[in-house]
């Protein structure tokens, strides 16, 4: 059973895309991505009974060439020399194009607002996706927004604890769909802190505006290559304020990519590069010719030969006699026309 795998190593977790769907695992080897990839592939081999036939993983366009080469060498040392590298924005665009079938020469701006930063890339479809502008990265991500919420709540309470920090992170994620969240505080007495969406948006607005300004610069750097759509990728891009700020500033349609879109795009690339199975060659064997049934020959016996000779001689004699008979004159006899019958009168 041959299968392919797409990997997206995010800061918060790793997305694994196969033909059976997308799953998320926690990062286990943050400082050793090659070891983590090898462990993930070993887990897949144990689950499916064999290793994947093709593996593709995403990477940030901001990663330097030296880092990619070192990662490739680490993968080779770990026995994974066949891992394909796919830029993360290209992978997201490939997954998006597989769903909507973008017209040729159309342009998409990928706004990847993840845990550690915002990567903005403009891509144009010309058979494949090519860079249409200068990519830009803003080092403001979901972790920074978490810190802003934590500092805001801690300033209200005057206390800080690991449990409170975790509650603030969960509250930030809930405010994407809830107008207000109550954060429990466990101390000498049980209390709670209310955090509304309006309050949350006021806290994070300056950071969000910095990321949106970078998107605006990337779009303007492309000149006439204005994007037809802005594709939002990453957990922080699901915050309603992000969608609102982009729509109001750029006046370009905004679409939110499904969770795990980059991993799905990497999987599609891996599947596309999988060689077609070579089947056994088909040999056409013509059907045997049916021999015509030979004509039955009448055996020639002495008696039959004598009979044939008699017929031939007899036919020749009859023809000779017919030719030697005297000619007979033929005369025509003229008959009188029939009379007219007269009926008697009474």
TrEMBL record:
PANTHER family in UniProt: CELL SHAPE-DETERMINING PROTEIN MREB
Name of the featured protein: Hsp70 protein
UniProt source species: Lentzea flava
Pfam families in the cross-refs: HSP70 (PF00012)
Record's keyword terms, sorted: ATP-binding, Chaperone, Nucleotide-binding, Stress response
Membership in a protein family: Belongs to the heat shock protein 70 family.
Domain of life, per lineage: Bacteria
ATP-binding keyword on record: yes
């Amino acid at each position: 059973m041959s299968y392919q795998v797409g990997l997206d190593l995010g800061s918060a977790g790793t997305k694994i895309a196969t033909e059976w769907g997308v799953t998320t695992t926690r990062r286990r080897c943050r400082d050793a991505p090659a070891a983590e990839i090898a462990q993930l592939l070993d887990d897949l081999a144990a689950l499916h009974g064999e290793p994947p036939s093709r593996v593709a993983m995403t990477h940030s366009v901001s990663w330097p060439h030296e880092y990619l080469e070192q990662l490739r060498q680490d993968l080779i040392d770990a026995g994974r020399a066949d891992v394909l590298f796919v830029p993360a924005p290209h992978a997201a665009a490939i997954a998006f194009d597989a769903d909507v079938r973008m017209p040729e020469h159309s342009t998409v701006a990928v706004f990847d607002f993840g845990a550690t930063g915002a990567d903005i890339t403009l891509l144009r479809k010309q058979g494949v996706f090519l860079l249409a502008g200068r990519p830009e990265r803003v080092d403001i991500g979901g972790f920074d927004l978490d810190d802003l919420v934590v500092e805001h709540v801690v300033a209200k309470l005057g206390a800080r604890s690991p449990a409170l920090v975790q509650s603030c992170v969960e509250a930030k994620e809930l405010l994407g769909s809830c107008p207000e969240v109550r954060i429990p505080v466990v101390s000498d007495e049980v209390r709670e802190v209310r955090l509304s969406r309006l309050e949350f948006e006021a806290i994070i607005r300056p950071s969000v505006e910095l990321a949106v300004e970078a998107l605006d610069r990337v779009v303007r750097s492309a000149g006439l290559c204005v994007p037809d759509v802005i594709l939002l990728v990453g957990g922080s891009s699901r915050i309603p304020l992000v969608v609102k700020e982009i729509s109001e500033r750029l006046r370009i349609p905004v679409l939110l990519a499904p969770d795990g879109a980059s991993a799905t795009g990497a999987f599609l690339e891996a599947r596309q590069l999988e060689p077609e199975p070579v089947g056994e060659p088909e040999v056409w064997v013509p059907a045997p010719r049916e021999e015509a049934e030979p004509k039955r020959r009448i055996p020639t016996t002495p008696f039959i030969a004598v009979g044939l000779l008699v017929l031939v001689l007899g036919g020749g004699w009859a023809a000779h006699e017919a030719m030697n008979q005297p000619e007979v004159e033929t005369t025509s006899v003229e008959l009188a026309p029939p009379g007219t019958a007269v009926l008697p009168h009474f």
